[in-house]
Amino acid sequence: MRKIPAVLRYLALTGLFAFSAACGAQAFPGKPIRVIVPYPPGGVDVLARVVLTEMSKIIGQPVILENRGGANGIIGADVVARAAPDGYTLLVCASSTLVTSVILSKNVPFDPVKDFTPVGNMYESIQALAVRMALPVDSVRELLDLAKKHPGKLTYASSGIGSAFHFGGEALKLMAGVDLLHVPYKGTGPQAVAIIAGEVDMAFPSYGNLGSNVNKVKIIAITSAQRSPRLPNVPTVAETVPGYKRIPGWIAMFGPAGMQSGVVNRLNADLNAALKSKEVIEAFDQQFTTSLASAPAELGGIVRGDLEEARKIANAVGLKPE
User: How many Å apart are CA 237 and CA 231, to the nearest integer?
Assistant: First the structure.
């Protein structure tokens, strides 16, 4: 037999490896996908389940949501950061876990940019400033006046130290010159329950967190920069406290660092298709939620930009890690 030249053998082998890799990407997923939501039930997981149910139909495998709460999402996020980068362990988390927690919490075990692969942005709910029904205020001005009369007495709930809600409350304290008592809860669900039940005087829940209980609290403002077209008569906090800012409260999907581009692109395409489904659109509409479908690179840019902005705001208002 004639000997095959070494260069041809090399090309044949590299071609075989490339073909195998391509087949591997095309075969994904070959088993159920686990998606960790790093908070207790009743918060982010409510709408995430709707999205993942539709994604499961599209992707052809079960997409299983697992609640893994603790430390404002840091514990569950760290599980994903340490997982194999094969696309079978994913993270759906709020911006607070990868942005404000990194700035306001000590000893975070991961780097939000280096240790995760962005898959795609998902949605954002309108975030409100809500007070308990029995509190004798109906506006931000009246709330601040009451806080100044009773320094350190009014309480505000957050979903944990380092959460976007904690960030919002501390920014309000410093920019409005009031003394409020921070009461951290273990997730957005428990935070919403606390303000609905009147356990605290105020909180910064999203409409998605409040759900059908939105009429059991008084919404006196929203925390976005401009009024929402869906709530044109509800003022912003910044209308009373000029310069008040918050970090956008997006919910997005990530995987561990090092995922193959073919797997990431497949997940992104199926996620974006799920966000366009009738079931998801209806659920978002009911919860005053906006779809934020994006490409992976776009989400990566959002994380980096929000980290930079959050550090600027934290430095400006004197927020320190706890």
Answer: 14
The distance in angstroms from the start CA to the end CA of the chain is 74
- Residue 67 pairs in a beta bridge with 37
Q: What residues form DSSP beta bridges with 217?
A: 132
Question: Kindly report the CA angle at 132 between 129 and 137, in degrees rounded to 5?
Answer: 75
CA distance 171 to 318: 9
What residues of the chain score a pLDDT lower than 50?
Answer: 1-2, 7-8, 10-25
Domains within the chain, CATH numbers bracketed:
31-125+248-317 (3.40.190.150), 128-239 (3.40.190.10)
The single residue listed with the structure tokens 């209806």 is 282
Contact present, 40 and 67 (Cβ < 8 Å): yes
Reference 265, options 7, 26, 20, 96; nearest CA is 26
Q: How far apart are CA 193 and CA 279, in angstroms?
A: 26
Cβ 187 vs Cβ 165: under 8 Å: no
pTM equals 0.80
pLDDT at 10 (0 to 100): 47
